[in-house]
Amino acid sequence: MKGLMRNKLIEAASQYLMFGLLVVMSLRLPNDPDMGWHLRNGQDVISNLSVPRGDIYSWTMPGYPWVAHEWLTDVLMAFIHSIAGLWGLVVVFAAIIVGAFYIASSIHIKSTLMRSLIAIITLLVSWNIIGARPQMITLLGVAVVLYVLFAYRDQRSSRIIYWLPPLFALWANLHGGFVAGFAIIMLFITGEFIRRVLLAKPSKKILKNIRPIIKFRPLIIVSAISFLATFINPYGWRVYQELIQTYSDSAILGSISEWIGVNLLQTSGYNIAILGILLVVLLAANRWRVDITKLVIAVAMFYVGISSWRHMPLFAVASIPLLAEQFDLLISRGLSDMSQKIIMPLVVLLLTAGMGYNYFSVSIPALSSPKNYGLYLNYPAGPVEYLRNNPKNRKLLNEYNWGGYLIWQLPEQKVFIDGRMAIWKDNGTEIFWEFKKLLGAEKEPAMAGLKEWNIDTVLTKASHPINFFLSNSDDGWSQVYADNLYVIWERDTKSLQ
C-alpha cells in the first residue's frame, strides 16, 4: 500500500515538474520590436472606440490606409498592460504559448508527463520567436484547429467542427495568421484523401474505397462558412489584400531579419534541424508505422517553417501530433520504471530551477520600468528621454526596429518608419527602401535623401556610417546627444531654407 502511494506521489511530482518546466520556458521577455506600437494602437482604439483607418504615427505617410488586422489583440495587450504592466503581458502570453503546445500534444497523448515532454521538445524549436507578440494567437489557433480536426476524424466528437466558424471569425480580428488555419484544414483533407483512397487496399468496388471520404463533406461546408466568417472584421476583404501584399513582396521580406529563410546549417537553425532528424529517426525505429495525415501536415509545415524565422513556430506546433504518435509507439514504452519515476523528475527539477533562476534574475530588473526594458533590449531609452525633455516639431529619421518603441514611449514625436510600414507604397514612394537609402552605407544617396525629405533630426546607432557623413557635412548638422550606443544629430533649420 505504501509502495503504491509512493509511486503515485512520484508520478504526480513528475507531471507537475514537467509542466512547470514548460511554463518556465514559455515565460519570455517581450522582445518584439513592434510591441510598442501594438500597445499604443490598443490604447488609441480604447480611447477612440474605433479602429484606425489611416496612419497617425508617422510623418512620412500620414493617413495611409493602414489595415490593423491585429486590432483586437492590440486592445487586449493595452488593457493587460494598463492593469499589470509588462509582467502581465509576459504571464498572459506564456499562458497562450503553453496552451498552444499543450493542446496540440493532447491530440494523441493522454499522459500529462508525456504531453509536457512533447510540448517542451517542440517549443525549443521556437525559442527565439515566442514571446509577448500577436503571432502567439495564431499558434494557439493552429493547435485548436488540429485538435478539432482529429477529434472529428476519430469521432470523439462529430459536432466539434461547428466551432470552426466562430473560431475563425474571432481569429480574423486577432491576427492575420488565421490563413494558417485554412492551410491546416487543406492539408488535413489532403492527408485523409491519401490515407483513405490512394493507400487503401484494392477493392473490386471503387466506391468502397471512396465512400469514407464522404464523411468530410460537412467539414468542407463548415470550412467554407469559416472563410465567410473571416470577413466579419472592421476591414472586410482588405484583410486578405494586406496579406497578399505582404507575402508577395519577396524583396522586402528578404531584407527583414525575421522574414529571412532558416539556414539549417547555422547555429540558430540547429533546433529545427534536430527536430526534423528526430522525427525521421523515430519513424525509422517504428518501421514507418505512421498516420499519413499527420505526416502530410508535418512535412508541408516543415517547408513553411524554414521559409522564414517568423514561421518556425508553425512547424513546431503542426509537427506535434506526428511526434506524439511516434513517441507513444516507442519512447514511452522504452523508458524504464526508474527513468520515468526518479531520474526524469530529478533532471526536470534541476532544469526548472536553473532556468527559473536565470529568467527571473534577468527579467525582474529588465521589466521594472519601460526605461529599463528599453536599456536591456538595446532600444534608445536615453535618446528618448533627451527628446522628451527637449520637445520640438521634428522631422525625425529613426532606425526601423526602433519605430515601435518610439511610438510607445514618445507618442508626441511622429516616426519616419516602424514595423507596420515595410510594404507601404504611395504615389511611387516605397518608404522601406527610402529608409534603406537614408541609413545605408553610401554617402551621396544618404545625404541627398536627407535634403529631399527635409529631415532635421537623425537618431541612429553610434557605429552607423551616417555619423561620419554628418560630421563631415557642411549642411549645418551638429551632434546634440551621444552615449556609447546612440547618437542624435540636429540640423540648423536655417540650413533648410
Number of helices: 23
Structural class: mainly alpha
Outline the low-pLDDT stretches: 203-211, 336-340
Mean pLDDT: 84
Order of helices and strands: HHHHHHHHHHHHHHHHHHHEHEEHHEHEE
* Percent helix range: 55-70%
Structural write-up:
Keywords: Membrane, Transmembrane, Transmembrane helix. This protein is mainly α and about 500 residues long. It folds into two domains: about 325 residues, no CATH class; about 120 residues, 3-Layer(aba) Sandwich (Rossmann fold). It is built from 23 helices and six strands. It has a four-stranded mixed β-sheet. Strands 2-3 form a two-stranded antiparallel sheet. The longest helix is centred in the first third of the chain and has 35 residues. The radius of gyration is 26 Å and the shape is elongated. About 5% of the residues have low confidence.
Brief account:
This protein is mostly helical. It is built from 23 helices and 6 strands.
Keywords:
497 residues, mainly alpha, four-stranded mixed β-sheet, two-stranded antiparallel sheet, elongated
Blueprint (SSEs and pairs):
Blueprint: H1 2-26, H2 35-48, H3 71-105, H4 112-125, H5 135-153, H6 164-174, H7 179-198, H8 206-210, H9 217-229, H10 238-248, H11 250-253, H12 270-285, H13 292-307, H14 312-318, H15 320-329, H16 331-334, H17 337-366, H18 370-376, H19 381-389, E1 396-397, H20 403-409, E2 425-426, E3 429-430, H21 431-438, H22 443-452, E4 457-461, H23 466-471, E5 477-482, E6 486-491
Parallel strand pairs: 1-4
Antiparallel strand pairs: 2-3, 4-6, 5-6
Helix pairs in contact: 1-3, 1-4, 1-17, 2-3, 2-20, 3-4, 3-5, 4-12, 4-14, 4-15, 5-6, 5-7, 5-14, 6-9, 7-13, 13-14
